[in-house]
Design a protein that fits this description.
With 186 residues, this protein is mainly alpha-helical. Helices cover 70% and strands 0% of the residues. The protein has ten helices and no strands. Helix 2 packs across helix 3. The longest helix is centred in the N-terminal third of the chain and has 19 residues.
């Protein structure tokens, strides 16, 4: 079954099925890791912090109600920030002072760049995850046509398939990527 992230969030809130938490962790760990580094968490402590955060999220997500008109990332940031602040208070001071951390009020203040960078990150991460849903040949055809911008006729000849098969592969992968991105690009 192909699920959008919005559907994944709904299931995590109500009745997760096997693999839902693993998918959530795979999708969001790189972003949370970057946020942690920006907060001054040492490389050796990031895994401990993220583990603590995921325990908090497992407890809090059943109370969360996804609203497509609002930002899930902002909600996640709030829980992340509270978890880091509590965690930092229990750790020897190695990063920014707690007063400095309190001044960080939004993910944008610690993001490495603009909203465009976040969208590139999200697309890259979702592409890594979605890639496993397709046979290697389908993914390679998609990359050649969409990413490399090669003509479908040329790609069809190279892979020994029809031009129609090339465009079907492209369409299936693009549709799957759109599904995954729905609701999480805020």
């Amino acid at each position: 079954m192909l699920d959008t992230p919005a559907t994944l969030l709904h299931r995590l809130c109500d009745q997760p099925v096997p693999g839902d938490w693993e998918r959530f962790v795979r999708l969001f760990t790189p972003l949370l890791r970057r946020w942690a580094v920006r907060f001054g968490v040492s490389d050796s402590s990031v895994e401990d912090l993220l583990q603590e955060l995921f325990v908090v999220l497992i407890r809090k997500l059943p109370e969360f109600r996804y609203d497509p008109s609002r930002s899930f990332r902002a909600w996640l940031w709030t829980d992340f920030r509270h978890t880091v602040l509590a965690w930092q208070k229990r750790q020897p001071q190695t990063g920014p002072a707690l007063e400095q951390l309190d001044e960080l009020t939004s993910p944008d203040s610690i993001a490495e760049a603009t909203e465009a960078e976040y969208r590139r990150y999200l697309l890259s991460r979702i592409m890594q995850i979605v890639q496993t849903d397709f046979p290697a040949t389908t993914w390679q055809i998609f990359q050649q046509v969409v990413i490399a911008g090669r003509p479908g006729v040329e790609v069809a000849r190279e892979f020994g398939v029809t031009v129609n098969a090339v465009y079907l592969a492209r369409s299936r992968v693009l549709a799957r990527l759109r599904e995954e991105l729905a609701g999480l690009d805020r």
